[in-house]
Amino acid sequence: MADNKVKSTKPANKTPPKSPSDPAKDRAAKRLSCDSNSSHEGAVAGEVSALEEAFRKFAIHGDTRATGKEMHGKNWSKLCKDCHVIDGKNVTITEVDIVFSKIKGKSSRTITFEQFKEALHELSKKRFKDKNDEEAVQEIYKLIEGKAPIISGVTKAISSPTVSRLTDTTKFTGSHKERFDPSGKGKGKAGREDLVDASGYVSGYKHAGTYDHKNRLHT
After folding, report:
1. Which of 22, 41, 126, 213 lies 20 to 30 A from 6 at CA?
2. pTM over 0.85
3. H helix intervals, 83-180
4. In degrees, to the nearest 5, what angle opens at C-alpha 121 toward C-alphas 117 and 124?
5. Predicted local confidence at residue 151, as pLDDT
6. Which residues are registered as beta bridge partners of 180?
């Protein structure tokens, strides 16, 4: 009987380890947790990248040597103007310059992306006074994300007395005058090269071609 009792207890001791599904469930739960965290981090990174991309575009504007990692004061002011951070009421160009000078280092003339965000945080308090700090920062980010420098006046024709005088073909003299007809239209090759006149008249004769007309009138 004692032997039977011992034998009956052995299977009872072996049952607890027989649960291989539990560690697998734990590992699966961990993977799901990691996936959800990574997707959340990816979403946050996407939001930041939109702001950083705008920073880079403005940082390299007008400077072929710029890397996009730092921004100088001129482009900082342009960003605030083009993205309507400056509203002329709560935020002015003077305040934008003051914040830039405050954030950048004493011996530096540029700001990094991290300093850029600090500067925006400073301006957000003035630009969105009716919102709390977090909401104000998000609102000012929305003004900038996905934006690029506005290039104005590129195709606008320059109009000035000097330009008008230089382009007025009626005032041209010498060989330059010969390149255009009385209407101001270019003569093309005929205006650039000396073509042989086979009409029989002296070059520059004003009444060329009128001889036959006069004879017909007298007959």
Report:
1. 22
2. no
3. 93-103, 113-127, 133-144, 161-167, 174-177
4. 130
5. 87
6. 186
